[in-house]
Specification:
It contains ten helices and two strands. With 307 residues, it is an all-alpha fold. It holds the Pfam family BPD_transp_2.
């Protein structure tokens, strides 16, 4: 692999990490504050992508689509929370897993009914077409650079919100010791609703940003959800800083692994076998990395102190 291709794949890995962070940020706070396992969080990412595609087609503008899709994703998240999730808070984890898995199936079929099963394509906004030269003779898509910048700006804003505001203080306290916060008079249910809605909007934001890069199709949130759970386990449940660092790590390992492993396997196998073995090993690398990290840091890289 050439240096140029390695650099491009590294940037692609960082961009994937940013999208994973936007999905994982709300998920880790929901799990940390309410100890609620929400397998349906990935459908918020998918809904964001579909809403962005629908609004872009209706208005002819990606920017209007982004502005309209965010409140729509938030409203969809609130609707699911009111109709389904709030009735599961007191249930055991198995009930939460089964119920939210049912929501995944329902929403996946719902988008097929509304938008069809064929993948949708969202055009790159005209303002962000083309590329920028990152090395002599190497152009990198401007839109992907904008996704990186938007994700980093969102991460900084989320850090300020969680670390420097009263609402963030309550969220951090809830993630540390929810029963104590509730005993002090804080409506923990309302706090969770706000966290859930904000997390749904972040996941929807990630979906809108992903629309011009990936195909918008039913089930697109499933793989992202799996990686998002890996992110929150590596980073530490309830930790925004941990989610950001772990998301970048997972994005790089996943992307570079898929690019490098087939070439590495060619040192030992014939090209056909190397492609198959490389693809199989690359799909395992993220989980191997998770196991290695947890062997030394069982609570994750940046665990939230409890007690």
């Amino acid at each position: 692999m050439t240096t140029q291709l390695l650099l491009v794949q590294a940037l692609n890995g960082l961009q994937l990490g940013i999208l994973l962070f936007l999905v994982a940020a709300g998920l880790t706070l929901v799990f940390g504050v309410m100890d609620f396992i929400n397998l349906a969080h990935g459908v918020q990412y998918m809904l964001g992508a579909y809403l962005g595609a629908a609004f872009a087609a209706a208005t002819g503008s990606f920017w209007w689509a982004l502005l309209l899709a965010l409140p729509a994703a938030l409203a969809a998240g609130l609707l699911l929370e009111v109709l389904v999730f709030r009735h599961l808070y007191a249930r055991d984890h198995l009930s939460q897993v089964l119920a939210t898995f049912g929501v995944i199936l329902f929403v996946n079929e719902g988008v097929k009914v509304v938008w069809g099963a064929a993948p949708l394509q969202v055009p790159v906004p005209a303002l962000l077409e083309g590329g920028i030269e990152i090395m002599p003779g190497l152009q990198y898509p401007l839109y992907r650079v904008a996704v990186l910048a938007a994700g980093i700006a969102t991460a900084l804003g989320l850090w300020w919100l969680v670390e420097r505001t009263r609402a963030g203080m309550l969220v951090r306290a809830g993630a540390t010791n929810a029963p104590m916060v509730s005993a002090l008079g804080v409506d923990i249910g309302r706090l969770f609703t706000l966290v859930f809605a904000f997390g749904a909007m972040l996941a929807g934001f990630a979906g809108v940003l992903a629309g011009p890069i990936f195909s918008v199709e039913p089930g697109m949130g499933d793989n992202v959800l799996i990686l998002a759970f890996v992110v929150i386990v590596i980073g530490g449940i309830g930790s925004i800083r941990g989610a950001f660092v772990a998301a970048l790590l997972v994005g790089l390992v996943d992307t570079l692994g898929k690019s490098l492993m087939p070439d590495l396997m060619r040192l030992f196998l014939d090209p056909s076998a190397a492609r198959q073995a490389g693809a199989a090993l690359a799909s395992m690398l993220v989980y191997v990395a998770m196991a290695a990290i947890l062997a030394f840091r069982p609570a994750g890289l940046f665990p939230v102190r409890t007690g």
